[in-house]
């Protein structure tokens, strides 16, 4: 499997995922240093970073990486194992079903670029778009009041016009940051004329941007993008696209007690009409043997 081609496809589709790479492995693990895989939002793993017990730990850690938007070093160890050099700052996962060996897997988030939708063609609007591209954000031009559904931030810099319609559309699109370029008095007047709830009004930043004493169009554009960067990095503005995020289903392996993510490849049995899930085929065989006796 050519993961680089798949990564490009996911990036073009704006689908978040995690790149998992084995950086250290000790026999008898089935994976080797350099093995890699992509972990999708629903827990699907494409590629190879170890057996199914390891995949369970990787899926759980990948969800954390996507939530935080930060890389993570995962140490996967068998139970009661201490013959693997310590790595400060690593997250440890103990797999009771592993037959031996130990691994370290580096997980890197691959998140779609933040989308900044801009309404208007004023010098401020142009400056916002320019600075957004400089920090690798995706810029979308708003036509009328048609706000893209995956917009993380919406900036209205028309200096008049039907600003209320764009603000309403941005609120309905669940944009995390809505900025109206206007003086404090005019901005408040625009919002006063709209039938907004208190939480909705609180989501609209006007004047938009950080208060840095900006006067020129370039300075105002810079202050707005700086405020969006602040919101993204602080966690105030979600980095994942505004889409229905699947919640991975989990179950407890009745043999080893490990919590497993239920996926198409997860070993399972149907016992008396009930699904029973396992971390690996070994636990499934042990369960079958015990209940066949």
Strand tally = 15
In terms of per-residue confidence, which ranges show pLDDT below 50 for 5 or more consecutive residues? none
Q: SSE order in H/E notation?
A: HEEEHEEEEHEEHEHHEHEEEEH
CATH topology of the largest domain: Rossmann fold
What is the tally of helical segments?
Answer: 8
Q: What general form does the structure show?
A: elongated
> How would a crystallographer describe the biggest sheet?
6 strands, mixed
How big is the Rg? 24 Å
CATH homologous superfamily caption of the largest domain: NAD(P)-binding Rossmann-like Domain
Organism: Rhodococcus artemisiae
Protein name: XdhC family protein
Pfam family, one: XdhC_C
Please tell me about this protein's structure:
This is XdhC family protein. Pfam families: XdhC_C (PF13478), XdhC_CoxI (PF02625). Residues 253-291 form the TRASH domain. Strand 12 (250-252) and strand 13 form a beta hairpin. The longest helix is centred in the C-terminal third of the chain and has 18 residues, at 217-234. The chain starts with a helix and ends with a helix. The model has no long low-confidence stretch (mean pLDDT 87). Helix 3 crosses helix 7. It is built from 8 helices and 15 strands. It folds into 2 domains: 3-110, no CATH class; 115-234, NAD(P)-binding Rossmann-like Domain (Rossmann fold, 3-Layer(aba) Sandwich). Helix content is 32%, strand content 25%. It is elongated and about 75 Å long. By secondary structure, it is an alpha/beta fold.
What is the strand and helix layout of this fold?
Blueprint: H1 3-12, E1 17-26, E2 36-40, E3 45-47, H2 52-68, E4 72-78, E5 91-95, E6 102-110, E7 115-119, H3 123-134, E8 138-141, E9 153-156, H4 163-172, E10 177-180, H5 184-192, H6 198-202, E11 204-205, H7 217-234, E12 250-252, E13 259-261, E14 268-271, E15 274-277, H8 281-292
Helix pairs in contact: 3-7
Protein name: XdhC family protein
Domain TRASH: 253-291
Organism: Rhodococcus artemisiae
